Amino acid sequence: MTNRQGRLFAIGSTAVAAILFLVMTLDSHRQFPELTNAENITPEVTHGKDVWHKYNCINCHTLFGEGAYYAPDLTKIAKHRGDPYLHAYMRDPSKFYNEQKHRRLMPKQDLSEKEIKDLVTFLGWVSEVDNQGWPPRPILVTGGMTTPTTMGGEGEITDADAASVTPVDSGSDPRALGEQLFSTAVPTCKACHSLTPGADGAGPSLGGLVTRTKKLLESGDYQGEATDVESYLHESIVSPSAHVVPGDMYSAGSTSFMPASYADSLSEKEIDQLVAFLATLK
Questions:
Q1: Which tens digits make up the pLDDT trace of 87-106?
Q2: Are the beta carbons of 189 and 271 closer than 8 angstroms?
Q3: Are the folds of 38-135 and 165-278 the same?
Q4: Pairing verdict, β 251-252 and 66-67
């Protein structure tokens, strides 16, 4: 190749790369409004973003994997924890930690109620952004699971993980289908509940659930309408505030921090399958 041909090749390849970059950039901007639900960017969302920057949340946390890695990524935290939990947590994080056990704590920022409300609204908007599976790895949310998951990582099951699970045949044992739902329902049960007795997280451990439920139903302290273990498990899934588990980590007054969205996101058949699995946790 002569010098002239080399120059022409360099100029041509640069021009092609520049055109491809321009086309991809324009195509990305074309999709941004739909991918980010731009129509849902309210003044509250914008103020919540300002609160995020005002208190330097990014110095410890990440969104979409970007930021500091001292504390968990919060891209989907609104879906995993829900508004009541996030409000209570931001008012006083110390209620959700034990300094000797967890060592590093989130500082109490003394946010106003308006700041908390709008920050939660902002995180809710972030959680609805189509991030196409990014970040691609499971990220541990402190106070959640601390044991390896069946997806080969430590922490929460990501949306990408859920999509990669091989569906169980519809003719399989309902308990097996329920076990799969425990790992793949949205919000993911495994993000808050351990199956190891005594290993409480953002939600109480489910180890020995059946035995504890029987004792609760016989104790006179039960506040709901269930009459047996299966109906209690069903009630706990579709109406978690019917009976509130004591403790600041799990409820605020008469409102459970467990998401109340499963009645809408799961079919009645799926709920029955999940109950069948939970009923095996003697």
A1: 999 999 888 876 676 666 78
A2: no
A3: yes
A4: unpaired
Specify the 3-state DSSP secondary structure of 9: helix
Beta bridge partners of 251: 256
Residue 11 phi, psi (nearest 5): -65, -45
Show me where the domains of the chain are located: 38-135, 165-278
What are the phi and psi torsion angles at 58 (to 5°)?
A: -70, -10
Residue 134 one-letter amino acid: W
In the block, residue with structure tokens 């273990």: 229
* H-assigned helices in the chain: 3-35, 43-54, 77-81, 83-91, 99-102, 113-128, 159-164, 174-184, 209-219, 229-238, 262-265, 268-278
High-pLDDT (> 70) share of the chain, %: 85
CATH 1.10.940.10 fits 38-135, yes or no: no
Contact 182/229 with Cβ under 8 angstroms?
A: no
Q: Which CATH superfamily is domain 165-278 in?
A: Cytochrome c-like domain (1.10.760.10)
pLDDT class of 33 with cuts at 50, 70, 90: confident
Could you write out the DSSP letters of every residue in 119-151?
HHHHHHHHHHS--TT-S-S----TTS--SB-TT
In the numeric block, which tokens belong to residue 261?
A: 């969205």
Token duo for residue 45: 């969302």
What are the distances in angstroms from CA 73 to CA 120, 134, 136, 280? Answer: 15, 11, 12, 33
CA separation for the pair 270, 191 (Å, rounded):
19
Compute the CA torsion angle 61, 78, 104, 250 (nearest 10 deg): 180
**CA 154, CA 81: separation in Å to the nearest integer?**
18
Q: Say how far apart CA 106 and CA 166 lie, in whole Å.
A: 37
Residues with Cβ within 8 Å of 62's Cβ and at least 6 positions away in sequence, in order, are 68, 69, 72, 73, 74, 75, 135
Are the beta carbons of 161 and 148 closer than 8 angstroms? no
Contact 281, 229 (CB under 8 A): no
